Amino acid sequence: MQPLTLGIKSTPRLTATCWPGHLTLRGRRGHCLRFQTAFAAAPTNSTSTTTPTTSPAVSSSGSETTIQQQQQALSYDPALDEEQQLSYQLSDVVMWAGTRRLQTQVLPIAEDTLTIRSLDWDRDRFDIEFGLDNGTTYNAYLIFGDHKTALVDTSHEKFHDLFLQALRAQLSAAGRSLDYLLVSHTEPDHSFLVPAVLDEHPDAVVVGSKVCLGFLQNLTHRPFKSQAVKGGDKIDLGGGHLLEFVMAPNLHWPDTMFSFDHGTGVMFTCDAFGSHYCSLRPFDADVKSLLPHYRFYYDCLMKPNAKSVTTALRKVKDLPYTLIANGHGPMLRYNVPELVGDYGRWSAALEKGTTTVVVLYCSDYGFSDRLSQTLAKGVTKAGVATEMLDLLSADPQEVVAAVGRASGLVLMAPPNDNADARTSLAALVSALKPKTKVVIAESYGGRDEPVDVLASSVVDVWGELLAPPLRVKELPGQQVYQLFEEEGTDLAQALTAKASIARKKAAMPPDVCKALARLASGLYVVTAQHNNARSAMVASWVSQASFEPLGLTIAVAKDRAIESLMQVGDTFVLNCLGEDTYSPLMKHFLQRFSPGADRFSGVEWFPGPHTGCPVLAGGIAYLEARVVSRLETPDHWVSYCEVLAGAVSDPAARTAVHRRRVANYY
Ligand code: FEO
């Protein structure tokens, strides 16, 4: 293998050697700087140090140390601005909780601007997301103006040592200290290390929205210099780096803001336009791989706030941004109009409907935000828009207006000792329209307002409880999140059932409806499992789709509970029902299950040998498969799936055939 040249020359003080995937700069005193280029693979445990994060995250082997790697200033070279040629500094791997690999990656992204990406390789999911096990990143940014230096966001608690090391190294190499710490929003995955950064830079001014600075007081428990900014406010770092702030509340916390650098065209957006996708490739060049993650992230975190997404897009439409520096996953450089445009299209599609559900939660209290987000995701799965409002920071008039507009209400129990929440609760009771469908749920915050009291105050003003209040008796796990999501879908379906049937009937001329029903199909039960969350559904829109590899397609309605377990990369089992034996299984799985109910109670099954997903003992054959890609139709996801394994239990039996008279139902 011949060394490559990437425009870096050896000098008397520095020897450069570049192999595909690695660039090594060796100093005269034996110090070694090791870079990797973007084609390097994800790290394996074998290269890791096993140092816990409570100890300095530095490993040493001879003269190569992580600290030495990071004590080199990085500069931006537009000539190297192709992803295949990018160089970056990569820390050694540190293990978290025994098995989770953590690492930082530092690289320049624009003039005087670099990112410190905290790579959380093995974070398997965020609470409300069941699938896409590709880890995540927490992205922070440093901007070196001519006379001021700003850090945009920090990192997750678990990156305490790694992040601070990287930050120290870059500031030290540039001979700078921090003048500003921009906090785009206060969820701990980006803001946990704010106090630690302020310990090292006590004179830094914390910049954020007014709501954000209020939240930060609770986080830091000490005074700090601060500057509250509004939309349109600017801070000049010098050298053309004029930062303009855009308020983007509810994306996805009430305090979120974007920051736009007029000098570079970089827009810092924190959660918005992100994805939970950990890769050494810092940008969106491989958009095909990224898209399912980008979409799923939007569905989970942004879709419940579609209206706020639309508002934020309107506010930034005239800003000449060319790079989206987000808080999670690859930054957007190569597909900015398309990917930003997706947010606009997806949000507009949801906003077309007239039925809405308002979701009242409390940020930074117990599990209120995550559980409410999960409920809202369930609502939006059924095509109903939600509007999320934080009871602790929203104006009571805002609450009244939102409740007045809504057909449904989700109320997460607020803390019983908060005056703002009490005021908003009194206001919403006065605004509730009779027969508004209501879901009330505990927040698992330790001092929840009793849900029975909340329920009776709703019933007193003629609200209709969809079901008894949801109670959370233990630290929410995947089953609790599944319950909340399904409750949200139930609420949306209760609000739209009549209109939905009428729409389906109106959509098809009678003759076409009868003709389409002549497409016969088999009868199956799809079963899926992710950790301890399981689901199942009767399916008939199934077909073989390829020979090599063996593949099939399956259509799943968007509002099906199992849809959350059938994301790209997820596995499932397709159970074939026999023509003489299908009836009991079909009846069982066609019943309407209450949210969170165990679909497999009373059914004999065993775990599939390749996937662990339930195989029904009463089926005549089964196939284990993995979702490879998904095609979106207006009301279904059509998944193309690779078959992994299969077996026949009854070679003599034939598959049940499903025939219909009309095509506007299954
Ligand atoms: Fe990535 Fe809302 O935190």
From TrEMBL:
Provide the cofactor list for this protein. Answer: Fe cation
Gene Ontology MF terms: FMN binding; metal ion binding
PROSITE patterns in the record = FLAVODOXIN_LIKE (PS50902)
Keyword Electron transport tagged? yes
Ranges of Low complexity compositional bias? Answer: 43-66
Record SMART domains: Flavin_Reduct, Lactamase_B
- Chain spans, region Disordered: 43-76
Q: Which residues form the Flavodoxin-like domain?
A: 357-520
Entry keyword set: Electron transport, Iron, Metal-binding, Transport
Function text: Mediates electron transfer from NADH to oxygen, reducing it to water. This modular protein has 3 redox cofactors, in other organisms the same activity requires 2 or 3 proteins.
Family affiliation: In the C-terminal section; belongs to the flavodoxin reductase family.
Instruction: Report what the protein is called.
Output: Flavodoxin-like domain-containing protein
Write the lineage as a comma-separated list. Eukaryota, Viridiplantae, Chlorophyta, core chlorophytes, Chlorophyceae
